[in-house]
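Page 37, continued from 36.
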């Protein structure tokens, strides 16, 4: 089983390395929408590791990692003994038990993965589509971890210089949890 865990972690490391290189290139070329898309992709790996780390049944963790390695979707057994697909929403909710900001980054990043009006960020502030609580939560997270000024309006332009450090924070947090997965430990915060 250790081999499955190592292969799964290696797969994530490969993805993270490519995400890092992509973000660096896109950031240098001013493609901020692609940078946000890459943040969301890195967050997908983070959410999956957090989801695994919240499962106490080690056999179930290993089964899910095996599904990834064999190219299959994650499923879980319901109370009715039926298999259901584990959705992104399920994983975000589980990860959100630990870190509330995940929901906002994930939700916002999805707008850049899927074709949406958020790509009009040069002419229309996509943060205006969020309610005041969501904007406040995002600002507080950015302030706490990246010293974003709380009195500054949220916009793609005002966040531009923070994107690399947000990526690094997600990526380094992700790497911190590899040991928990490899050692069959629960992820608690």
């Amino acid at each position: 089983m250790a081999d499955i865990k190592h292969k799964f972690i290696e797969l994530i490391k490969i993805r993270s390395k490519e995400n890092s290189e992509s973000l660096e290139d896109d950031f240098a070329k001013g493609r901020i929408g692609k940078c946000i898309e890459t943040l969301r992709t890195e967050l997908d790996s983070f959410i999956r590791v957090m989801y695994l780390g919240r499962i106490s049944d080690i056999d179930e963790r290993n089964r899910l990692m095996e599904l990834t390695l064999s190219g299959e979707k994650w499923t879980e057994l319901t109370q009715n003994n039926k298999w259901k697909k584990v959705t992104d929403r399920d994983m975000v909710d589980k990860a959100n038990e630990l870190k509330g900001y995940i929901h906002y980054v994930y939700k916002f990043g999805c707008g850049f993965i899927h074709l949406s009006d958020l790509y009009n960020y040069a002419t229309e502030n996509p943060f205006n589509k969020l309610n005041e609580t969501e904007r406040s939560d995002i600002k507080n997270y950015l302030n706490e971890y990246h010293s974003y000024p709380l009195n500054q309006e949220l916009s793609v332009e005002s966040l531009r210089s923070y994107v690399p450090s947000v990526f690094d924070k997600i990526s380094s947090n992700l790497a911190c949890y590899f040991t928990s997965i490899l050692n069959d430990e629960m992820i608690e915060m």
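DSSP finds nine helices and two strands in the chain. Flag for discussion at group meeting. The beta strands are 75-77, 83-85.
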